[in-house]
Each structure stands twice: as C-alpha cells, then as structure tokens.
Write a structure and sequence with these properties.
Elements (H helix, E strand, L loop, with lengths): L1 H13 L3 E10 L9 E7 L11 H23 L4 E9 L14 H7 L6 E20 L5 E19 L4 E18 L14 H14 L7 E10 L5 H9 L2 H9 L7 H18 L2 H15 L12
Parallel strand pairs: 2-3, 2-4
Antiparallel strand pairs: 1-7, 4-5, 5-6
Helix pairs in contact: 2-4, 5-6, 6-7, 7-8
Length: 307
C-alpha cells in the first residue's frame, strides 16, 4: 500500500513544478501530566477469565501480560520525573474480552491515598493474528498464494487522577511478523497456533510496555511536502535539502514582492513549508493563506505529501 502511495506522489511531482522535501515536526506529548508525578499501577486484566479451552494459549496471555507490566515499569525506571509503583491489588473487570468498566471515584481515592498523584490501570490485554494473503501469478497462468501472519497486541489503559477523574483512556498496538504459509487454491490457510506464540508475544509486550513512558514527552515526526523547485526556486530547494534554513528564507523572501502573482504564490507556499518544518505555526499559516490567495485551487495539497 505504501509503495502505491509513494508512486502516486512521484507522479504528482512529475506532473507539476514541485519536488518533495522532508519536514521534521516536534509534536506535543500525548499526555499532559505535570512532572514529578507519582503513579500507582493496578492490573485489571485476569487471563484466568479467558474462555479458551487451550491452557497453552492462556499461558501465552499470562506471559505476555507479565512482560508488558515489566516493560512498563522498566520504562518508568529510565525516567527521573515520573515514577511508577506496582501494586499487588487486583481489580477484575467484568469481562476479559472487553475494556474494564470505570472505577468509582472513592475506590481511586482510596488507592491513591498513600501519596500517589495518579492511578494507572491495565484494563485489557489482547493478542490476535492478522492475516494478509499475497497472490503471485506465474508464467503458465497458475497462481501461488502465500498467507502472512502478524501477531498483534492491543493494550487498554486508563489513567485516573487522585480524585477519581479520568485523565485519559489509551489503546495501544504493537505487531510483529510471525509466520508465513502457502495457501492451496480454494482453501483457507491453517493459521499459526497462539499457544506457541509465547516468544513473539513476550517480545512485543515488553517493547510496548517500555514505549509507554514516551507519551509524557514531546516527539519528532517526519513527513513529505511538495516544494516548488523549478526556476526561480532551484536554489531555495537545494538549500532546503541541505538544511540551510536562513538561506531558504532569504531566497524565498526575494520573490514575495514579484509582480507576477504566480511567483508570489509559489514563494509563499514554499515559505509555509519552511515555517512548518521550523515549528513556526503563525508564520506557516500566514504564508499558506497568502499562497491560497494568489494560487487558488492550484495550490499543492499538504495532505498529498503525507503517508
């Protein structure tokens, strides 16, 4: 799918006067919680309540859940401004297959009464296989089919403040390539056994747990944007690729007073891309609107540069 999108983007660039540049944006934390906060963790997922007939499968959920909690604690232990304490208390949910019901405020207040600022609960933990079938046509017209299986982990977490208010509910996912099998034409592939997936389950569970602490901090994302790169913007394009932001700005500003509104519009659009990359939202919005005023519907769509 991503290959098709990438080819489409190349087609857009070739059919216009633009090339693609990579921008880097700093995003705010997923969780806006004050530093030096203390969390109490309570597990609400009970693998023994799963209605599986296979004990090996249940054991995989046990091992995976334990690895997730260990990873969660390890992630917090690498951080100096947020602290997590694991509790021996368990508060079972009404169903092992659904996210747990919300805790009553008085229960949360009681649990946080020993100097905890927040309560973090694991409401549910789920593993499943995601299948994708690839079909390859041979020279003789026959087709080979291969089923690829990812092992997927979903976790459901609720964060409460010490008065029992819900701060956030979080569903996270982690997957790993697990297995591949040939498919006989007209027949469904026999999938892998969850009861034998313990190694991969533990691997992605530990990783997802460790990654949770990252939600408390800003993070950087990369994206693609179209950028006018033909005359007179060749130099600005090359300076952008080199990361010479002051030179890009200086070069583009020269064309914002050009008598040709198309040149002004394109310079304005490129400036909006530059300021988006630099995290200057006000400047980005100003120059993008200026580009819209000059180019109208011919302005590149920012979404077309996103994967």
């Amino acid at each position: 799918m991503k290959t098709n999108i990438f080819l489409a983007l190349i087609g857009i660039a070739l059919s216009s006067c633009t090339s693609f540049v990579t921008i880097h944006k700093t995003m705010p934390p997923d969780l806006n919680i004050p530093a030096n906060s203390d969390f109490l963790f309570v597990d609400r997922f009970m693998p023994e309540e799963l209605d599986f007939n296979n004990q090996n499968k249940i054991d995989v959920f046990y091992k995976g859940r334990d690895k997730f909690v260990q990873g969660l604690k390890a992630g917090f232990d690498t951080c100096k401004v947020y602290h997590l304490q694991l509790s021996d208390t368990t508060l079972p949910s009404h169903s092992a297959h659904e996210p747990a019901y919300n805790l009553k405020p008085d229960i949360v207040e009681h649990l946080c009464s020993h100097s905890y600022d927040y309560l973090l609960t694991l409401d549910n933990y789920n593993l499943y296989f995601d299948q994708d079938v690839e079909v390859v046509e041979n020279e003789d017209g026959s087709k080979d089919r291969t089923a690829y299986y990812d092992l997927v982990l979903n976790t459901y977490i609720t964060i409460y403040d010490k008065e029992g208010g819900i701060v956030d509910k979080l569903k996270d996912e982690k997957r790993i390539e697990h297995d591949e099998r040939s498919v006989i034409s007209g027949l469904l592939a026999v999938g892998p056994s969850m009861g034998k997936a313990d190694k991969h389950a533990e691997l992605i569970s530990d990783a997802l747990g460790r990654e949770f602490i990252q939600k408390f901090f800003p993070y950087e994302v990369s994206d693609l944007r179209q950028f006018y790169s033909t005359k007179p913007f060749v130099q600005a394009f090359h300076d952008f690729e080199r990361g010479n932001w002051q030179a890009v700005e200086k070069e583009l500003m020269k064309y914002t007073e050009n008598p040709d509104p198309k040149i002004v519009g394109r310079a304005s659009y490129n400036l909006s891309v530059l300021y988006e990359n630099l995290g200057k939202k006000a400047e980005q919005d100003y120059w993008y609107q200026n580009a819209v005023d000059k180019l109208g519907s011919k302005i590149p769509d920012p979404a077309m540069g996103s994967f």
